[in-house]
Structures are given as C-alpha cells and as structure tokens.
Amino acid sequence: MTPHESKLRVALVVVAIALGCYGALAYVVLPFVWTHYEHQKGLAGLPTLTQTAQGIHGDPINVGLVGTKDDVLCAMHAAGWDPADPITFRSSLKIVGSVVLDRPYRDAPVSNLFYQGKREDLAFEKPSGNSADRRHHVRFWEALAQGEEGRPVWLGAVTFDRGVGVSHYTAQVTHHIAPDIDTERDRLLDDLKTAYVVDTVYEVSGIGPTLNGRNGEGDLYYTDGEIKISRLVAGCGVKAQQVVVLDNPPLVHIKNLAWKAVTDLLQAGDGAAPVK
C-alpha cells in the first residue's frame, strides 16, 4: 500500500467515525436527553404526529389542555376561539363564498386530521382578517381520560392558515399553513392566559426540534418540538388568580434557548410581518 493510499484509508476511517458519532449524537443521545414527561407521565410513548385521511403525516402535536370537555369549551370561548362547523355541503359552500367574496365566516369547517386513528374530537378557530382563507385554528383529541391531575388531557395541533391553495401531495384545494408553528402555539396560550382560564403551564416532549418538517399538504414547518400544556380552571366563569409556569429540566431549557436563536434567524430571513 502506497503512502497516498494509506492516508486516504485513514481519512475515510476518520470520516466514518465522525459520521457515526454525529448519527449517535443527533438521533440517539440528544433526543433521549431532551425527552421529558415529568409533569404528565401518561403521555410518554404516545405519537406526536397526526395523519391525514390518506395516511400522510399531518400537523405535529404542539399544545395540550387539562380539563373536562366542558372546561375546554368554556375556556376556548372565553379566549375568543369559535368551534368549527362540521364539514357539510352547506358549510363547504359557505367557506367558498367567504374566500371568494372576502366575507366573514368565523366558524368555518376545518379538514379532518387523525390521531391514533381517531378524527379530532374538537376544533376551534379564530379569524385573521375578513374571510376564512386566513385564520388561526386548532384540533384537539382526548389523549388521556385521567392525567396526573385526575382530569382528562387533550392533545392538539395548532397552526395558522395563511391562504388557500393546492395540496403539494394530493392536488386538492386546501389551506396552507405558516411555517412558524411555535408562534401559533404561544399565541393560543396567550389568549387563554388573557382570558384568565389557565392556572398552570408546563411542557412535555413532542416531535422534537424540527427544522424542515412537512405536514399533510406538503407545507414546511419548524418547531422546538415541545408541547405546551395548559391546566384549565374547573368550571365556566371561574377565573384563575395567577398562572404558575413549571420548570423544564436544565438541558431542555438550554435546548430551547438555542432553538430560540435559530428561530430568530429564520424569522429575520423570512421577513414576514407578525400575524394578528
């Protein structure tokens, strides 16, 4: 073996070792370190992605609520979010008219997504502008009949519809989402806090840090991968006196700070105006 061949072989071995270390760190060690369910242990091992009717990965799970169904309905109403109409021929015509004629439809239907094989139990939306082509919307599924607090736990996927277009996967007419789904998650939490219907907030692991995710329509999204869970006050009309925010493990906190720096760069490059 010539000296050149020997150096090349050593270089290839070094590259292979480096790639192996990267793979172990990125796909085994860090995801394990960042995975945490200390505040809601029953969620460990549950899926973190929804699916479309065609079995394509849909929006990631990024929010959660703790409370009965009545608590959820009352809290979302107090926060200014309207229940979405079911998909019918009449509601489909109304949403087309809303988009084409630029007129309001506050409770326009949302397409069905599936979590653990089940269609969403509840769906809510909040308009942004006149028509239904731009809106904040969230779907919820009852994931646990009884969580750590002894009350049901609802997992949800909240995103912002930025406009109507054609699915990149199925060519069907659909809404396209804005990529920054963490901002939507935080906006929903802010609405609930402003309505004084949340007394405790904490995070558990979701999909994990994701820079170039794609939903069921092929739309790009990025996220720190955390699920923010809000414990609701019990009973309609009850107001929270304060909001307690439970701490994350130190390494998760560091990860979130690092991801915030990445998000700031993404938002600066996008140059998009804040969505209201």
Structure description:
Helix content is 33%, strand content 28%. The protein has 276 residues and is of the alpha+beta class. It has one domain. Strands 3, 4, 7, 8, 9, 10, 11, 14 and 15 form a nine-stranded mixed β-sheet that branches. A hairpin with a 7-residue loop joins strand 7 and strand 8.
Short description, anyone?
The protein is built from five helices and 15 strands. With 276 residues, the chain is of the alpha+beta class.
Main sheet characteristics: 9 strands, mixed
What separation lies between the terminal Cα atoms?
Answer: 67 Å
Task: Give the overall pLDDT as a whole number.
Answer: 80
Cα Rg: 21 Å
Oligomer designation: single chain
Which features characterize this protein?
alpha+beta; 15 strands
Summarize the topology:
Blueprint: H1 3-34, E1 49-51, E2 57-60, E3 63-66, H2 69-78, E4 82-83, H3 89-101, E5 114-115, E6 118-119, E7 122-127, E8 135-144, E9 153-166, E10 173-177, H4 181-194, E11 198-205, E12 210-214, E13 220-223, E14 226-232, E15 244-245, H5 250-270
Parallel strand pairs: 3-14, 11-15
Antiparallel strand pairs: 1-2, 3-9, 4-7, 5-6, 7-8, 8-9, 9-10, 11-14, 12-13
